[in-house]
Amino acid sequence: MVAQSIAGPVIRVRGLEKSYGKLEVLRGVDFDVARGSIFALLGSNGAGKTTVVRILATLLKADGGTASVNGFDVATRPADVRESFSLTGQFAAVDEILSGRENLVLVARLRHLKDPGAIADDLLRRFSLTDAGGRKVSTYSGGMRRRLDIAMSLIGNSPVIFLDEPTAGLDPEARIEVWHAVKELAGYGTTVLLTTQHLDEAEQLADRIAILHQGRIIANGTLAELKRLFPAASVEYVEKQPTLEEIFLSVIGGDDKSDTIGTSN
Amino acid sequence: MTTYFFGDTRVLTGRTLRHVTRSMDTVITTVITPVAMMLMFVYVFGGAIDTGSGSYVNYMLPGILLITIASGVSYTAYRLFTDMKSGIFERFQSLPIARSSVLWAHVLTSLAANLISLVIVVGVALLMGFRTGAGVPAWLAVAGILFLFTLALTWIAVIPGLSAASVEGAGAFAYPLIFLPFISSAFVPTETMPGPVRWFAEHQPVTSIVNTIRDLFAQRPVGDDIWTALAWCAGILVVAYVFAMAAYRRKIA
């Protein structure tokens, strides 16, 4: 891979514009993502988060502005950009008819890597899918499918990973499993750009959060910086009730499966 | 990226071929219609159809083979449509591969799946009394024409496969293609048809292709029909390819 040694941000977006017919989805989006960080693009449904990811992933052309990944411009060097990232889609794009292992082998071979079988076996182990590895993906649960999906995007050790709504449609347990996987990725120095509409997800994972609203970034900073945008906190005494999520997790036993993810490395 | 084209196409073709071998029901449903038609025409209508000379199975097999291909390519559109909808097409497009190999894998798989169906249908025809004294060159010529016809129809199938809004829409294009042999020389001689129908029958692609294959099987000289047949196949192929690539470019923009 042609790794561009640049000191600046690994993802750089400037004045990005995109319209679908008369509908202006992006109206001048600017942000940078520092190498090795987790950056969350937060926004409600239809805010244009997926459009940003699709442009960065060279699946869609912007109408205006520039974007670069790993130092390569998405419009002029798309092939180099594709060498630099992995994409995990909003709807786990895995092959239902193939087994989990075959899916991993397929991606390893398409990334032109040596020994795809060993890569697949290693990832199945890291994502606790070894037993299910030989089964057709159509028999997997939503959480297993998403784990496989993320495992597929780790193949080839891309410096950048785009996670488009990685936990959409998952139950709380599976969501925590995915969070652990994402944190582990960043631990290895991978830059993660994730989109989400869940505030707690951004809070849990991201080093920096940008809020995309009506086609523009209206706030961009660390959680602490964003908190400072609000009026100073007033002190009130409120009885702390457990959240439904905490209740759910404690009632079903709380044997946190996600601990098994990635401990082999 | 051209360095990866053949390797990537091979890997992705392996994937789609597995889709075919793991859902053999698609091959069975492809051959069931032509085989049922063959049984109907030979054992029900055949006795009342005067084709001049020779056995009726021999007469109608070429048309049945074209119907087999027409119903086979609807699964090509279906497989491509499913890849588009599931998002795996985009996942492949986001990988550092030769991007067009995704499409070529579907095209090669279509050729392979149709070959399986054609072999099954010819096998059934042999059981029903189809006989030919055609030698290796004539068989190769038949195979060549069927290959071209499958390739042309496959590229037609790519268009709805890439752009259809629903599964039904993706497969619907095949119905007129399956119907076309009925208004041709495939089942009855065109001389029996009324004026305008006969004119249409004699000037549409199926008639020239059917006549050529029939002559090759019967070891008769093929005449000009073969050039008309090849011109139709090549023409359809080029036009369908151009439209398919336009649809493809819209998708990967």
UniProtKB/TrEMBL annotation, chain A:
<dbReference type="InterPro" id="IPR003439">
    <property type="entry name" value="ABC_transporter-like_ATP-bd"/>
</dbReference>
<feature type="domain" description="ABC transporter">
    <location>
        <begin position="11"/>
        <end position="239"/>
    </location>
</feature>
<dbReference type="InterPro" id="IPR017871">
    <property type="entry name" value="ABC_transporter-like_CS"/>
</dbReference>
<dbReference type="GO" id="GO:0005524">
    <property type="term" value="F:ATP binding"/>
</dbReference>
<keyword id="KW-0046">Antibiotic resistance</keyword>
<keyword id="KW-0067">ATP-binding</keyword>
<keyword id="KW-0813">Transport</keyword>
<dbReference type="InterPro" id="IPR003593">
    <property type="entry name" value="AAA+_ATPase"/>
</dbReference>
<dbReference type="InterPro" id="IPR050763">
    <property type="entry name" value="ABC_transporter_ATP-binding"/>
</dbReference>
<protein>
    <submittedName>
        <fullName>Export ABC transporter ATP-binding protein</fullName>
    </submittedName>
</protein>
<dbReference type="GO" id="GO:0016887">
    <property type="term" value="F:ATP hydrolysis activity"/>
</dbReference>
<dbReference type="GO" id="GO:0046677">
    <property type="term" value="P:response to antibiotic"/>
</dbReference>
<comment type="similarity">
    <text>Belongs to the ABC transporter superfamily.</text>
</comment>
<keyword id="KW-0547">Nucleotide-binding</keyword>
<dbReference type="GO" id="GO:0005886">
    <property type="term" value="C:plasma membrane"/>
</dbReference>
<dbReference type="InterPro" id="IPR027417">
    <property type="entry name" value="P-loop_NTPase"/>
</dbReference>
<dbReference type="Pfam" id="PF00005">
    <property type="entry name" value="ABC_tran"/>
</dbReference>
TrEMBL record, chain B:
<feature type="transmembrane region" description="Helical">
    <location>
        <begin position="170"/>
        <end position="188"/>
    </location>
</feature>
<dbReference type="GO" id="GO:0046677">
    <property type="term" value="P:response to antibiotic"/>
</dbReference>
<feature type="transmembrane region" description="Helical">
    <location>
        <begin position="136"/>
        <end position="158"/>
    </location>
</feature>
<feature type="transmembrane region" description="Helical">
    <location>
        <begin position="27"/>
        <end position="49"/>
    </location>
</feature>
<keyword id="KW-0813">Transport</keyword>
<dbReference type="InterPro" id="IPR051784">
    <property type="entry name" value="Nod_factor_ABC_transporter"/>
</dbReference>
<protein>
    <recommendedName>
        <fullName>Transport permease protein</fullName>
    </recommendedName>
</protein>
<dbReference type="InterPro" id="IPR047817">
    <property type="entry name" value="ABC2_TM_bact-type"/>
</dbReference>
<keyword id="KW-0046">Antibiotic resistance</keyword>
<dbReference type="InterPro" id="IPR000412">
    <property type="entry name" value="ABC_2_transport"/>
</dbReference>
<keyword id="KW-1003">Cell membrane</keyword>
<feature type="transmembrane region" description="Helical">
    <location>
        <begin position="102"/>
        <end position="130"/>
    </location>
</feature>
<feature type="transmembrane region" description="Helical">
    <location>
        <begin position="61"/>
        <end position="81"/>
    </location>
</feature>
<feature type="transmembrane region" description="Helical">
    <location>
        <begin position="226"/>
        <end position="248"/>
    </location>
</feature>
<keyword id="KW-1133">Transmembrane helix</keyword>
<dbReference type="InterPro" id="IPR013525">
    <property type="entry name" value="ABC2_TM"/>
</dbReference>
<keyword id="KW-0812">Transmembrane</keyword>
<keyword id="KW-0472">Membrane</keyword>
<dbReference type="GO" id="GO:0140359">
    <property type="term" value="F:ABC-type transporter activity"/>
</dbReference>
<feature type="domain" description="ABC transmembrane type-2">
    <location>
        <begin position="25"/>
        <end position="251"/>
    </location>
</feature>
<comment type="similarity">
    <text>Belongs to the ABC-2 integral membrane protein family.</text>
</comment>
<dbReference type="Pfam" id="PF01061">
    <property type="entry name" value="ABC2_membrane"/>
</dbReference>
